[in-house]
Design brief:
This protein is mainly α and 459 residues long. The chain is built from 21 helices and no strands. The protein has one domain: Sodium/glucose cotransporter (Up-down Bundle). The N and C termini lie far apart (68 Å).
Length: 459
């Protein structure tokens, strides 16, 4: 098994590096680093968006919640992803692309700064982008568990290899490397999702799968994320809709030209993610297939390491999961480094500046990932949900209110959302679920942005 895994992993590394080199030849400016040519093939952009949405969080960490909580987690994550992404992408992306093309935006903070005519607001949201490091850590940790269990190397070595390789090829190739490698990774991930889903066919046929899931009920009272019906159905869906505003996702709308191509891109991405969600069943299979109780963050990787008796198939599954992880990681890296470089440093930024910023992010990510928290999903949500809550109001007002908007309204919106999110977290009012405070903060921030924005917009 190890020989097969390392052989296929070596092939994957070579092909990815080759595509990154090809993308690097097209990366000659900060614009090409951030969004490519702006006229990318919509099918490629769509598969890139879908692959970037589905990371090791979906393939490794989320199934662990299904392993621990059963049916509530399967419904809470699965339904919310499909419904939330469908609504969120269509609400935000077409209008974002239309306005972004008019003002020449390269990043989400750049878009906000131009829409509100406020360089300060642009820098504020670029700074808030640092919260994405928590999500980078989540992806690296999930990937590290898979490499440890399947390639036979230590977790620490896995983290170092992931960070060096992914940050290295992304820093060289930028958005073009991200799109080319994600197209390959996304196609492979479609096959993998079906293979993982089919691996538990025996439990479908004998009825034990449904019997076990039914035994958990529709809520998990002891769960941090799914203890009530509102947490299962409402909170998760609101947060996924908000997740669509994240820089590594929403900026994909700037990869293509025109509303028609945005539509093709979104349909491709949503269809791909719908297939990817089949991997959540790995958590249900782990409940039945693992001989011993394991930490939930490691349940999926343990299941993958034992579920496939054929060495070539098992190795292919391992490599594809690593590809899924890296597909999100490089998208996050491109968005974050482009924003910190272009939006904070400004006109003096060059491709070299992007790469220096990227190196600093890599070091911070590696240090944090080497000492992961007990539940990395919760830790990541605290950071990433704060960014979702803060950016939701300014984006909604910027997209759908006409005329000149108030930067003060956007600032008040973000401050309101962050105060509610972190206030409920540090006082314990969210019950340990970061999504509760964030969803309330997101809605409150939208109300503030729309109300104050309208009052200050010219008639």
């Amino acid at each position: 098994m190890l020989a097969w895994a390392w052989s296929l992993f070596g092939v994957y590394l070579f092909v990815t590096a080759l595509l990154a080199w090809h993308g690097g030849r097209k990366t000659t400016s900060t614009q090409s680093f951030a969004i490519g040519s702006g006229r990318m093939n919509p099918w490629m952009a769509g598969l890139t968006l879908g692959a970037c949405t589905a990371s090791s969080s979906l393939f490794v960490i989320m199934p662990g919640w299904v392993y621990a909580d059963g049916l509530p987690a399967l419904l809470g994550f699965g339904v919310s992803l499909i419904v939330g992404l469908s609504l969120g992408f269509w609400v935000f992306a077409p209008r974002f692309q239309e306005i972004g093309a008019d003002v020449g935006a390269l990043t989400v903070p750049h878009w906000i700064g131009e829409r509100y005519r406020s360089p300060l607001l642009r820098r504020v949201f670029a700074g808030l982008g640092l919260l994405q490091i928590s999500y980078l850590v989540l992806v690296v940790v999930g990937c590290g568990y898979v490499m440890r269990d399947s390639l036979g190397i230590s977790y620490q070595m896995s983290v170092v290899l992931i960070v060096v390789f992914v940050f290295g090829y992304t820093g060289f190739g930028g958005a073009w490397a991200h799109a080319l490698t994600n197209s390959l990774q996304g196609a492979i991930m479609l096959v993998l999702a079906i293979v993982i889903f089919a691996s538990g066919i025996e439990w479908w046929l004998d009825g034990s799968l449904w019997k076990d899931l039914a035994s958990t009920g529709l809520v998990a009272p002891e769960s941090q994320l799914f203890s009530t019906h509102a947490e299962v159905w409402i909170v998760q869906t609101i947060m996924v809709i908000g997740f669509c505003t994240q820089p590594q996702l929403l900026s994909k709308a700037l990869y293509v030209d025109g509303r028609k191509h945005v539509g093709i891109m979104l349909l491709t991405a949503i269809a791909a993610v719908a297939v990817y969600t089949l991997v959540l069943f790995a958590g249900a299979y782990a409940r039945l297939g693992l001989d011993e109780v394991v930490p939930q963050d490691q349940a999926a990787s343990r299941y993958y390491a034992t579920a496939f008796l054929s060495a070539p198939v098992g190795a292919a599954v391992t490599v594809t999961i690593l590809a899924a992880s890296m597909s999100t990681l490089d998208g996050l890296i491109v968005a974050l480094s482009a924003s910190l470089s272009g939006d904070l440093i400004g006109k003096r930024a060059t491709v070299s500046t992007n790469r220096i910023v990227l190196t600093l992010i890599a070091i911070a990510t590696a240090v944090l990932a080497l000492h992961p928290p007990e539940l990395v999903q919760i830790s990541a949500q605290i950071g990433i949900f704060a960014l979702i809550a803060a950016s939701g109001g300014p984006l909604v007002a910027g997209l759908y209110l006409r005329g000149r908007l108030s930067a003060l309204a956007a600032f008040c919106s973000a401050t309101t959302a962050l105060t509610i999110h972190f206030g409920m977290h540090f006082t314990g009012l969210n019950g340990g679920n970061p999504g509760i405070g964030s969803s309330i903060g997101l809605v409150a921030g939208i109300v503030v942005a729309v109300t104050l924005g309208r009052a200050r917009a010219p008639a």
